[in-house]
Write a structure and sequence with these properties.
381 residues; alpha+beta; 3 domains; four-stranded mixed sheet; four-stranded antiparallel sheet; 10 helices
């Protein structure tokens, strides 16, 4: 029971149907194997590029498709329904591209954004540090001016595909303490003094590599700074607004996958001489799951339409991320419950779905931070 396509225009419907076929026929069958091996699905990312799905929301001048952000999010949802870890990688890639498109120089767009949109390069985003997670302003990585560029030093954590990415958006301190002392840089794979120092061993998303990155006097040309010096924190927050919608779409796709598995299992499983889905109590659970997913889908699409219209959407992005990821946690937990003892066995995907859902409540700002963002916006309005 995937997302309803009836109200899409012909172009959107054709794109989503193509993505749905790729997700169901290619990504979904590969997901469990990549997860078991804790292996980054590099071949699938190559196929994304071949399908022109790596620059959906960015201008055609830079090899993008120039489509609305809402359309891109529908693509993310379809991929997440098949293989969440893979969809998260696309979301993070788009986060990097957003910063370059919105704040980068024309040179940076031609040199970096065009490669990201074509899929020649894949991007990552690096803000968090060992001592600064939710308190991102406290980041300590340094960027010192040197020979027409900057020397970057410090440690970053929780960077999705940080060692696999070709270009990483890195926030580092160029000035005094506080938000105005932070700048943003594109650091290329292979830069001397830059790379992954530790790959984290995670509960879920095992095929989506999460890295600690080390910067040891890594030289970055001045042309690779994104935006003005001291503008990095604003870039980071703007990127997170877009990224939260990506996580909302990922959450919706995962929740939909869990509901689909629960519907399938409860139709096939018989107890007391009839399918268990004939039990009214189970039907109520399924009804609540479906309703929560539909509400989350409406929330993230509404926020995306505001974004596409050039309107403020920070509070709506936070609401969508909060609601959709909480929904994913509830729905995947209920899907395990509806499977009974089988839900706790790795043969059935719902146990993986439940483990994967937990991280969605943490990344792109914890759900406690989303509530803080929403609350502050409410009392300021």
């Amino acid at each position: 029971m995937p997302a309803d396509l009836r109200l899409l225009d012909d172009e959107q419907r054709a794109l989503i149907q193509m993505v749905r076929e790729f997700a169901d026929e290619v990504a979904a069958p590969a997901a469990a194997g990549y997860e078991e091996r804790s292996e980054d699905p590099a071949a699938l990312y190559e196929q994304l590029a071949q399908l022109d799905l790596t620059g959906i929301a960015y201008p055609e001048d830079y090899n993008g498709l120039g489509l609305p952000y809402e359309t891109y999010l529908m693509v993310v949802e379809e991929i997440a329904r098949a293989y969440l870890g893979f969809a998260v990688g696309l979301s993070v890639h788009t986060l990097c591209a957003f910063a370059v498109n919105s704040f980068g120089s024309e040179e940076l767009k031609r040199d970096v954004l065009a490669r990201l949109c074509s899929g020649e390069w894949f991007g990552a985003y690096s803000l968090s540090e060992p001592g600064s997670g939710s308190d991102a302003v406290a980041l300590a990585a340094k960027a010192s001016g040197s020979d027409g560029g900057y020397r970057l030093s410090g440690s970053k954590v929780f960077c999705t595909r940080g060692n696999e990415a070709d270009a990483v958006l890195v926030m580092a301190r160029t000035g005094a303490a506080g938000a105005k002392g932070i700048s943003a840089f594109i650091v290329e794979k292979g830069t001397q003094g830059f790379g992954g120092s530790k790959k984290e061993d995670k509960m879920g998303w095992r095929s989506s590599p999460t890295w600690m990155l080390q910067l040891d006097d890594a030289f970055v040309p001045g042309s690779r700074r994104v935006g003005a010096e001291g503008e990095g924190f604003r870039i980071a927050l703007a990127s997170l607004d877009s990224g939260r919608l990506g996580i909302a779409a990922c959450s919706t796709g995962l929740a939909q996958a869990a509901l689909d598995e629960a519907l399938r299992f409860t139709a096939e499983r018989e107890q007391f001489g009839k399918p268990v889905n004939q039990n009214q109590g189970l039907q109520f659970m399924l009804a609540d799951m479906a309703t929560q997913i539909a509400a989350g889908r409406a929330l993230y699409r509404h926020a995306a339409r505001l974004r596409d219209a050039g309107e403020s959407y920070s509070i709506e992005a936070a609401q969508a991320k909060l609601f959709c990821s909480d929904t994913a946690m509830r729905v995947t937990t209920d899907a395990v419950q509806l499977h009974g003892g089988y839900g706790y066995i790795t043969e059935y995907p719902v146990e993986r779905f439940m483990r994967e859902a937990k991280a969605l409540q943490i990344v792109e700002g914890t759900n406690q931070i989303q509530r803080l963002v929403i609350g502050r916006k409410l009392i300021q309005s």
